Amino acid sequence: MLPDSKQWSTALEPFLNIAPNLSLAITNPLDGVVYMVDRQDADAHLQDALDIPRDFNGYSPALRMALYVSEMMEKADKDSFFTTEQHADAVLYLTLVSNLASDNLGLHGANHLWTEYTSEVDEQVSNFISSTQVLVSGWLDKATSPDLRSTTDAGFLGLAGKQLLEASRGKSPLAYHHARAFTVLQGELVERHDIDPDIMITESSLKNLRRGPDIFLTTGLLTAYKPYHQSLQLCNEIVSDLTGFDALRMGTEGRN
């Protein structure tokens, strides 16, 4: 009834390999990190996406798949019809497609998710983005503690977040798009629920992030968990590494 993760990945890969257009940085939750995306073979990746077979509206299989899944999930009771893995896939991939659609709607030709730029097509895509945001927001609002688990007996939101985070390593366009989706989903969860940030930011992971090259993963965590002290600690340690200035220590000394 629903595509599996392999089908999603195959359909979306050509578009996730496309580096985001720099002019879209201002509307992006990761802000200037867009300038750090590896742009090697950028023109070739754009052409690969353009060469994908399409329907009469110019829709790619990835967009058609997302439209179908979004409609199915809106009409169905997730607890009755879908496994945890299917629901995690829906959250993860609908968010990825919605982000790509927003980019291509804001700048026609940004990623060629569709190629017919008419007012009718723009309206349908805009409706898809809005309905998907409402659908995902509804899942986030109703999330319970079991839904958020990311380890043993993982819930669908915990599983989706873990998969997005793991795919955010490196500086490839694919890593960037997954980090952006993680930031959107996890940031909204943080706003809605009292989430323990130690689920994603442990003391050991702080050290690994500080020393590692995964700027998109690090920025995604900092952005999503900015209300928490773990995020402030990581930010301070990175600043200290770059400048030799310890903001937390200096702040403490200034109050004495």
Please give a structural write-up.
It is a single chain. The chain has one domain (5-196). Helix content is 64%, strand content 0%. It contains 13 helices and no strands. It has helices spanning 5-16, 42-50, 61-75, 78-81, 84-106, 119-141, 145-148, 156-166, 173-192, 203-211, 215-224, 229-243, 247-254. Helix 1 (5-16) packs parallel to helix 5, helix 3 packs across helix 5 (84-106) and helix 5 (84-106) crosses helix 9 (173-192). The model is unreliable at 250-256 (pLDDT under 50).
Task: Give the secondary structure arrangement, pairings included.
Blueprint: H1 5-16, H2 42-50, H3 61-75, H4 78-81, H5 84-106, H6 119-141, H7 145-148, H8 156-166, H9 173-192, H10 203-211, H11 215-224, H12 229-243, H13 247-254
| Head-to-tail CA distance between termini | 64 Å
Silhouette:
globular
Instruction: Summarize model confidence as the mean pLDDT.
Output: 81
Residues in β-strands, percent = under 5%
Sequence stretches where pLDDT stays below 50 over 5 or more residues: 250-256
Number of E-state strands: 0
As a percent range, the share of helical residues equals: 55-70%
Order of helices and strands: HHHHHHHHHHHHH
Domain unit count: 1
Cα-based radius of gyration, to the nearest Å: 19 Å
Helix run count: 13
What structural class do helix, strand and pairing data support?
mainly alpha
Main sheet overview: none
